[in-house]
């Protein structure tokens, strides 16, 4: 195991928890897929995926390039003499103020861990369990133990799991006994630490059918022991539910866990700490309760207790109970009908009267119901007879006349400074957000319920009322039909423009500018019948927005955002003259001025200005293209200046600015490169621009690298074969990018740029291919590189092969076995969750694109026969994909294309093989009658190629 | 189990512009990869061979377009031996005529009924009109008659057949159709597809070519009525399996064009340039106005006439490969009549007729009439001469064809019966 400094370890542990917190925040959007802490569950599932591949019976033919199966340092399973060592003093020293002492202690621990892991773990467990030891040493012992069982990085995590599994069972039993005993410790720190350690061990062992007695012994604790132990035990159950996947716990245990947890929540439980632990445990256990929620009686019982718990006198318990309701709303939406009336009453009361942290959860319940219904209705796709897995119960529609007034009420509870505070989140913001979701759920029906509120408040002297009215208007602009909204928006437009100029409140102006942006986003565009923006009012709009860009940063930022959507509305106008054309120069000038504001770094203003500028460039037309050509040297000069300044001071903001400028140049390159005349004008800058990008690589910022790399990809595409002249200088950065495992986004984008360069240079890429292929093969073999980069690397093989044709010969020996083993592993997804299936499909697509490129690259070459030995495997892969029946449309299209490529290149010599394959019959037939145009087209092509191959 | 934060994005778009740029880059790369793949897929893998130019320069039918064609002649490259269609499509003037004159597949005349007619063959009613090759490429469409000269140059809805902004795919990818231009309704009836969007179908079986033709042509809008960008309508011809109902449908079924006989295509045959026995033409009075050859005045001559090519040593040959020799002219006569090798010469078949032994021509009674019309590109084929001969003596009738199709069905029934008895 890698040695680690203990100090750093403690730091990491805290960081680890923070990361988990962030993950929890991010899981909101994913709730539908896996309601409970998706990130964590996925982690576990990924782990299982890896572990399954460790199973020798499933292992592919051994290959040194098999990146799935990178060998782990084999742990010695021979029982080692495990003796408890005295570690107290070292653990205390490791937290000493004296740096030297600390360092020495960390060194000692590191050595101990390396030299005798069993004894090390046993000693730490002993320390944690020993009530006579100081709290500090016990706590650190627990943390080190926890970190010896789990890690953030995937490869390390696997390593730790393997190590634990290979330890002597007797030793492990001893350690586990010590851990369980600690749950009854009088020390609160020891109890709370050990509950996490137990969950980590369970996370490793339960999926392997080990530690079967764990749940039983925990449950026996819940019923008898003193309150602190009951609390710790419930917390442990909660952590375990968070850690392991529901399918490794049998239903009998699930029943018992739920019974214990719900009993712990019951008002008969007098100890609030126990109740809180129980409610939080239920939150994690909800994912295990599928069967119980299908049983009316059990579900009624759970729901009754959860609803009762929302009335607890303890605010933390109330909040946790609402969190459970939120989780239930997404996990068990279809079971909610009998309870929705009660829940409405409870949430309405909480929104009105309870403390904000509780009220926020109550509002979140309705936001979450909106999320559910929006998804279901989207699945209906307007066709209400269509089958959906889950029917829509129209809870929002039914509650609408009560829900909307409740939400409008919250809008008046703004905080004074919420627009300046990046992290602000309060009841007005949550209420407004929920109102927007309700509008998306019910459409037109919301308009008459909100309009009176707007009319009543929009002109009131109190800024809160004006702001609330404006926010309400902005919130309902997405959802209702354009027919319904257009008259209202046309009427309101002038009022809003005036308010943006004249309202004394920054708060109102901020929301007004945002609302204008929403008007342009949803009700302006070439697709709409009656445009709200006409040549007549366009000038006024532009003038007001430009003026507003001089306002305080938060208002100016929203004005930039409004301009973004104003420009976007003309994106599809084609070469038709745009009403913005006369103001193009003024707009660009105003945005550039904003980027130079002293306070542009506040409130994301500078970013918003560049984003708007990018959109203005994207939506430019033939008339305004010459002005975009003129913009290019201006932005280049800006980039040049930041690079010069960098010598003086290098800071985060410079790097961020460089990233924005590279992004802007990328958009300009892409725009000007898309038509011949503008491309011709732009090319005069190509050399200079490339030189600037290369200088950006000198900075250490991953974001700047990424943006520069993206821009270079666009430049390579626009430049074509002439890009060759930059290769000598650019190559080293290309290689650097491919080696950047840490910032995997940079690596991923560089892989994409290799593809761009291949297509630009074609066979001229050849001199660089040895280096590129070596690095790509290394990337594939690495278990440190984020897995999302691997599918694009395979696709990149295809790009290279297509560019260099038969010269790919020398890489076949390396690339083909790698493709082959990845193909075998990706052929089957059985039992994987949605994320894993999605990843597997992207992997398959990459592999297939590689095959396509290789076959097409060799077409017509005398060396075609070199590919013959691989043909049976490729066909088998296609057959097994077809049998598996879980390809997405993209994979289907690529797969059937590969069949054609194989036939096209190998011709009659592969005829018999092709005719034997299922793919050439059933799969092809299915694809030929596909509704998907692209699949059908590929299939027809494959049919053509096959018919040529077998008709000789 | 820390409390859960549920902050949602507020007054900010869900996706940052950077994320948008990243996604757009990925989309562009995916699109470029697709384009590169498609480009590779549709590069014709087989080069079509262009044999040594015929010694005889075929004279073009006079057509106004010929003028601008003839100008670059002086710059025309040395006739290359092998050209693929892409290169050929760049040929100008006489070179182009030479090349295209050799690219059409010509049916033999049906002088006896092939085996397995009902299983292995398609049948369709041949539209009456000018047989031509239609090539669409680089924003224009050109039709060329069987001698290679241009019939029309026009915009069409075929792939890259007109200069339009929205054309998909690389502009230089070409499509080649085998058509008959039907004057009455000014329509090109497509009877075969040779190349489509740069992909060669020469090596595909007829079964596949017809499938491809049927599924692809309609997609382009080429079958729509004429418009500004589409001067002539293209139309498909109903093709049937040559069983009894198919044969009847082709023979008697009503079609929007004037019929000129029936064409039979072997399902498994590739598109083969020149004359092939795997495509056959058959006519009778019911399905064609032109069963018997007419002279320049449109009259059926009293005696059957044939055009033969004079070759080295005075041999009179058909256009077949290898040629069938009908007779020999002596040097004195040739000199007298200003004939030289390579000339196309017209003869009438006298009372002695044609004498065949075991299917081979043994003797022909030929009477010299004169040189053939300058517009003729080549001599008659053996099968044509024989078909014309049989029309005048013992024609192959539709009943014979139907009979052979039926007897095939009977036979298969018989086989079946025997097996069941066994």
UniProtKB/TrEMBL annotation, chain A:
Pfam families: HEAT_EZ (PF13513), IBN_N (PF03810), TPR_IMB1 (PF25574)
Protein family: Belongs to the importin beta family. Importin beta-1 subfamily.
Entry keyword Cytoplasm: yes
Keywords, ordered alphabetically: Cytoplasm, Protein transport, Repeat, Transport
Signal sequence residues: none
GO cellular component, one term: cytoplasm
SUPFAM superfamilies linked to this entry: ARM repeat
Source domain of life: Eukaryota
Organism ancestry: Eukaryota, Viridiplantae, Streptophyta, Embryophyta, Tracheophyta
Identification of the protein by name: Importin N-terminal domain-containing protein
GO-annotated molecular function: small GTPase binding
Domain Importin N-terminal: 105-185
Cell location: Cytoplasm
Chief location of this protein within or outside the cell: cytoplasm
Biological process annotations from GO: protein import into nucleus
PROSITE patterns in the cross-refs: IMPORTIN_B_NT
From TrEMBL, chain B:
Source species: Arachis hypogaea (Peanut)
Domain Snurportin-1 m3G cap-binding per the UniProt entry, residue ranges: 103-279
Segments forming a coiled coil: none
Similarity field: Belongs to the snurportin family.
Keyword Amino-acid biosynthesis: no
Assigned keywords, A-Z: Cytoplasm, Nucleus, RNA-binding, Transport
UniProt-listed GO biological process terms: snRNA import into nucleus
A family per Pfam: SPN1_m3Gcap_bd
Subcellular location per the Swiss-Prot or TrEMBL entry: Cytoplasm; Nucleus
InterPro entries xrefs: Snurportin-1, Snurportin1_C
Phylogenetic placement of the source organism: Eukaryota, Viridiplantae, Streptophyta, Embryophyta, Tracheophyta
Protein name per UniProt: Snurportin-1
CDD domains: Snurportin-1_C (cd09232)
GO cellular component, one term: nucleus
Job of this protein: Functions as an U snRNP-specific nuclear import adapter. Involved in the trimethylguanosine (m3G)-cap-dependent nuclear import of U snRNPs. Binds specifically to the terminal m3G-cap U snRNAs.
Main location: cytoplasm
Gene Ontology MF annotations: RNA binding
């Amino acid at each position: 195991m890698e040695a680690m400094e203990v100090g750093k370890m403690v730091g990491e542990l805290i960081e680890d928890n923070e990361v988990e917190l962030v993950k929890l925040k991010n899981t909101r959007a994913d709730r539908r897929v896996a309601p409970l802490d998706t990130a964590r569950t996925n982690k576990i599932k990924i782990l299982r995926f890896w572990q399954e591949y460790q199973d020798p019976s499933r292992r592919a033919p051994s290959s040194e390039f098999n990146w799935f199966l990178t060998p782990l340092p084999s742990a010695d399973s021979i029982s080692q003499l495990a003796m408890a060592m005295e570690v107290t003093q070292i653990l205390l020293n490791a937290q000493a103020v004296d740096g030297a002492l600390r360092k020495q202690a960390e060194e000692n621990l590191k050595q101990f861990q390396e030299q005798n892991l069993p004894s090390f773990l046993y000693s730490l467990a002993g320390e944690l369990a020993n009530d006579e030891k100081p709290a500090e040493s016990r706590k650190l012992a627990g943390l080190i133990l926890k970190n010896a069982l789990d890690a953030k990085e995937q490869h390390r995590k696997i390593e730790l799991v393997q190590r634990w599994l290979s330890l002597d069972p007797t030793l492990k039993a001893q350690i586990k006994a010590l851990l369980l005993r600690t749950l009854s410790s009088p020390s609160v720190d020891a109890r709370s630490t050990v509950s996490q350690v137990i969950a980590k061990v369970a996370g490793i062992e339960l999926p392997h059918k080990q530690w079967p007695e764990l749940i039983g012994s925990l449950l026996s604790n819940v019923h008898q022991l003193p309150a602190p132990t009951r609390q710790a035990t419930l917390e442990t159950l909660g952590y375990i539910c968070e850690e392991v996947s529901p399918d490794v716990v049998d239903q009998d245990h699930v029943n018992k866990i739920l019974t214990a947890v719900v009993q712990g929540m019951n008002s008969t439980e007098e100890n609030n700490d126990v109740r809180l632990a129980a409610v939080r445990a239920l939150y994690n256990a909800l994912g295990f309760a599928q069967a119980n929620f299908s049983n009316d009686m059990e579900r009624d019982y759970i729901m009754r207790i959860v609803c009762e718990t929302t009335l607890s006198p303890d605010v933390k318990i109330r909040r946790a109970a609402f969190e459970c309701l939120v989780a239930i709303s997404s996990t068990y939406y279809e079971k909610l009908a009998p309870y929705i009336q009660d829940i409405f009453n409870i949430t309405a009361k909480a929104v009105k009267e309870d403390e904000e942290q509780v009220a926020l959860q109550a509002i979140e319940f309705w936001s979450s119901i909106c999320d559910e219904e929006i998804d279901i209705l989207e699945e209906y796709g307007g066709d209400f007879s269509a089958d959906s897995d889950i029917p829509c119960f129209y809870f929002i529609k039914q509650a609408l006349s009560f829900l909307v007034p409740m939400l409008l009420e919250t809008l008046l509870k703004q905080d004074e400074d919420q627009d300046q505070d990046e992290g602000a989140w309060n009841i007005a913001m949550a209420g407004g957000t929920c109102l927007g979701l309700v509008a998306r759920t019910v459409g037109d029906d919301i308009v008459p319920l909100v309009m009176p509120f707007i009319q009543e408040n929009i002109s009131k002297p109190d800024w809160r009322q004006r702001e609330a009215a404006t926010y309400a208007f902005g919130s309902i602009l997405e959802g209702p039909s354009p027919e319904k909204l257009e008259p209202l928006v046309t009427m309101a437009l002038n009022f809003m423009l005036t308010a943006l100029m004249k309202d004394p409140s920054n708060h109102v102006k901020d929301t007004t500018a945002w609302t204008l942006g929403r008007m342009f986003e949803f009700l302006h565009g070439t697709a709409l019948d009656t445009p709200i923006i006409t040549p007549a009012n366009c000038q006024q709009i532009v003038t007001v927005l430009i003026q507003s860009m001089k306002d305080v940063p938060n208002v100016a930022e929203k004005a930039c955002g409004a301009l973004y959507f104003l420009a976007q509305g003309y994106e599809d106008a084609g070469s038709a003259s745009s009403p913005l054309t006369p103001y193009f120069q003024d707009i660009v000038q105003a945005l550039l001025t904003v980027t130079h504001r002293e306070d542009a770094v506040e409130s994301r203003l500078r970013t918003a200005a560049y984003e708007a500028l990018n959109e203005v460039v994207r939506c430019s037309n033939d008339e305004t293209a010459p002005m975009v050509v003129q913009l290019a040297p201006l932005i280049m000069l800006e980039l040049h200046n930041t690079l010069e300044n960098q010598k003086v001071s290098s800071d985060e903001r410079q790097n961020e600015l460089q990233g924005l400028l590279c992004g802007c140049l990328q958009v300009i390159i892409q725009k000007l490169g898309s038509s011949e005349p503008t491309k011709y004008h732009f090319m005069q800058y190509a050399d200079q621009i490339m030189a600037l990008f290369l200088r950006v690589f000198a900075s250490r910022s991953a974001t700047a690298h990424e943006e520069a790399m993206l821009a270079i990809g666009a430049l390579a595409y626009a430049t074509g074969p002439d890009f060759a002249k930059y290769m000598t200088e650019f190559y080293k950065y290309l290689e650097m990018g491919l080696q950047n495992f840490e910032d995997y986004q940079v690596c991923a984008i560089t892989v994409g740029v290799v593809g761009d360069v291949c297509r630009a240079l074609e066979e001229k890429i050849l001199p660089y291919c040895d280096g590129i292929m070596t690095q790509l093969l290394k990337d594939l073999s690495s278990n440190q590189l984020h897995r999302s980069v691997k599918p694009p690397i395979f696709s990149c093989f295809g790009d290279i092969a297509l560019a260099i044709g038969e010269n790919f010969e020398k890489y076949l020996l390396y690339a083909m076995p790698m493709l082959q083993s990845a193909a075998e592993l990706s052929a089957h997804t059985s039992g994987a969750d949605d994320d894993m299936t999605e990843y597997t499909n992207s992997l398959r697509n990459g592999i297939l694109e590689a095959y396509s490129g290789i076959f097409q690259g060799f077409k017509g070459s005398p060396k075609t026969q070199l590919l013959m030995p691989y043909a049976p495997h490729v066909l088998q892969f296609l057959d097994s994909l077809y049998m598996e029946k879980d390809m997405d449309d993209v994979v289907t299209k690529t797969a059937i294309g590969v069949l054609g490529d194989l036939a096209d290149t190998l011709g009659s010599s592969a005829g018999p093989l092709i005719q034997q394959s299922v793919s050439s019959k059933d799969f092809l037939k299915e694809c030929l009658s596909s509704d998907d145009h692209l699949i059908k087209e590929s299939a027809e092509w494959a049919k053509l190629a096959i018919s040529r191959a077998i008709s000789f | 189990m820390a409390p859960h934060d549920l902050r949602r994005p507020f007054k900010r778009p869900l996706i940052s512009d950077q994320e948008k740029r990243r996604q757009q880059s990925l989309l562009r790369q995916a699109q470029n990869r697709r384009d590169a793949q498609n480009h590779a897929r549709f590069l014709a893998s087989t080069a079509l061979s262009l044999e040594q130019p015929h010694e005889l320069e075929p004279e073009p039918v006079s057509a106004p377009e010929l003028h601008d064609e003839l100008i670059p002649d002086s710059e025309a490259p040395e006739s290359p031996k092998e050209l693929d269609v892409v290169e050929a499509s760049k040929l100008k003037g006489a070179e182009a005529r030479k090349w295209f004159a050799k690219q059409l597949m010509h049916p033999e005349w049906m002088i006896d009924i092939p085996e397995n007619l009902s299983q292995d063959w398609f049948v369709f009613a041949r539209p009456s009109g000018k047989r031509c090759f239609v090539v669409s490429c680089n924003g224009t469409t050109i039709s060329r008659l069987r001698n290679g000269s241009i019939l029309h140059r026009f915009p069409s809805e075929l792939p890259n057949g007109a200069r339009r902004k929205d054309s998909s795919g690389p502009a230089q990818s070409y499509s080649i159709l085998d058509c008959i231009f039907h004057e009455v309704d000014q329509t090109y009836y497509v009877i075969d597809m040779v190349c489509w969007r740069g992909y060669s179908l020469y090596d595909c079986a007829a079964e596949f070519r017809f499938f491809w033709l049927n599924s692809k042509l309609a997609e382009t809008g080429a079958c729509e009525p004429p418009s500004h960008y589409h001067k002539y309508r293209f139309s498909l011809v109903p093709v049937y399996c040559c069983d009894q109902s198919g044969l009847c449908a082709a023979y008697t079924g009503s079609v929007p064009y004037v019929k000129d006989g029936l064409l039979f295509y072997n399902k498994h045959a590739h598109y083969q340039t020149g004359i092939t026995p795997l495509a056959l033409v058959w006519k009778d009075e019911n399905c064609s106005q032109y069963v018997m050859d007419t002279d320049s005045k449109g009259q059926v001559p009293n005696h059957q006439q044939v055009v033969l090519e004079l070759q080295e040593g005075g041999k009179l040959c058909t256009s077949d490969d290898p040629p069938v020799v009908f007779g020999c002219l002596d040097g004195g006569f040739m000199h007298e009549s200003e004939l030289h090798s390579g000339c196309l010469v017209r003869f009438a078949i006298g009372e002695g007729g044609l004498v065949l032994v075991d299917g081979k021509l043994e003797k022909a009674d030929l009477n010299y009439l004169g040189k053939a019309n300058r517009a003729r590109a080549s001599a008659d084929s053996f099968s044509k001469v024989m078909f014309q001969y049989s029309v005048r003596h013992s024609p192959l009738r539709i009943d014979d064809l139907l009979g052979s199709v039926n007897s095939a069905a009977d036979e298969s029934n018989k086989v079946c019966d025997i097996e069941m008895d066994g």
